[in-house]
Amino acid sequence: MMCAGLIDAHKADVLLLEKNEKLGKKLFITGKGRGNLTNIADVRTMLECISSNPKFMYSALYSFDSAATMDYFEALGLKLKTERGGRVFPLSDHAYEITDCLSRRLKQNKVNVCLKSGVKKILTDNGRVSGVLSADGREIQADCVIVATGGLSYPSTGSTGDGFSFARELGLKVTDTCPSLVPLNADKTICTPLAGVSLKNIGVSITDRKGKKLFEDFGELLFTHNGLSGPVILTASSRLPKNTDISGLTLHLDLKKALSFEQLDERLIREFKENPNKQFKNSVGSLFVHKMEEMMVALSGISPEKPCNSISREERQGFARIIKNVEISLKGRGSYDEAVITKGGVDVRQVDPKTMEAKEIKGLYFIGEVLDVDALTGGFNLQIAWSTAAAAARAVSGS
């Protein structure tokens, strides 16, 4: 929609083929329905937030950055606001307003929109695009074809990997894919009893079977029936290489990230001194949210009924070490149905980063999530979509 609206109508007749019954179906769920349009981060910061192939995005982002995106939508009448972390939303908190703006622009630009119009394959002739074969068997001629089919995440919105199939049929390489910005499945014996518990400012690290650290960060996480979710977990899923076998990795939680081991030990000493005759199981309420108390007492190895004044130095410090390092076995990534984005896609080495045109097939362009480019949550992935769309539109328009 962005690309079709930006193409110079004086230089090209534009046909938008949409297999869904309406436009912008995936936009409706961005930002939990509020429409996280972009992020005000400068280009340098934005590139740091791209997990796969950030260098490929250098030219596109500098040519059409978040400021340009905001200007574009504001010119179409969309009022915006900026929230925590630089996230930009419609002032109304309704994602459908983004779709409405893009739809108005399509009408202004005299774009011919065909809904419920799937495509079977892209047609070529002597190394150049000649059109597409529609799902109903029609051959539609075109000098340029721009593929903006998304990846595999949230397939109910139409992202079922069509663009990957088109690319493979034309001999282009598609890198391995996996769900990204997705919850992680983990040991249910720990996670399921804590489902619904949200923790803030928690240290998170992930190690492999040999103890090598693969990821480390801190932030907010959420326990689910199947494992873990929340911002820091989604970030972890994005930063872990897509060929990493999640099953067998260990996630480590530092429940008191703000305290050093020594500071935590001092706090435990104070807690136990203030409640000398209390049973251990009744003395940890100030340390953890209610639903975690029983689990932490069990992990400590200290008898729940033991009076605080009988807890040894070794037991106390062992408890502190567990608080700083709760180990949870990971079982795998969540599914594409839960994934915000797809990691992997059309190999960017086959695509011109300035124009998004396939190097070996003239007139064929790939934009957005279909490319092997993905980023962290916070508006960065939609900015990739806008920037690559603008690059292709400029190239098609000859500007």
Helices and strands, with pairings:
Elements: H1 2-6, E1 15-17, E2 38-39, H2 43-48, E3 50-52, H3 58-63, H4 66-75, E4 80-82, E5 87-90, H5 96-108, E6 112-114, E7 119-125, E8 128-134, E9 139-141, E10 145-147, H6 162-169, E11 178-180, E12 184-186, H7 188-191, E13 198-207, E14 213-223, E15 227-229, H8 231-239, E16 250-254, H9 261-274, H10 290-300, H11 313-323, E17 326-333, E18 341-343, E19 364-366, E20 374-375, H12 380-397
Parallel strand pairs: 1-6, 10-19
Antiparallel strand pairs: 2-5, 3-20, 4-5, 7-8, 8-9, 11-18, 12-15, 12-17, 13-14, 13-16, 14-15, 16-17
Helix pairs in contact: 9-11
Description of the molecule:
It is built from twelve helices and 20 strands. The chain has 399 residues and is α+β, with helices and mostly antiparallel strands. It folds into three domains: 238 residues, 3-Layer(bba) Sandwich (FAD/NAD(P)-binding domain); 70 residues, Elongation Factor Tu (Ef-tu), domain 3, CATH 2.40.30; 63 residues, Orthogonal Bundle (Helicase, Ruva Protein, domain 3), CATH 1.10.8. The chain has a six-stranded antiparallel barrel with strand order 12-15-14-13-16-17. A three-stranded antiparallel beta sheet has the order 2-5-4. Strands 7-8-9 form a three-stranded antiparallel beta sheet, with helices on one face. α9 crosses α11. The longest helix has 18 residues. It is elongated and about 85 Å long.
Summarize the model shown.
Helix content is 29%, strand content 22%. It has helices at 2-6, 43-48, 58-63, 66-75, 96-108, 162-169, 188-191, 231-239, 261-274, 290-300, 313-323, 380-397; strands at residues 15-17, 38-39, 50-52, 80-82, 87-90, 112-114, 119-125, 128-134, 139-141, 145-147, 178-180, 184-186, 198-207, 213-223, 227-229, 250-254, 326-333, 341-343, 364-366, 374-375.
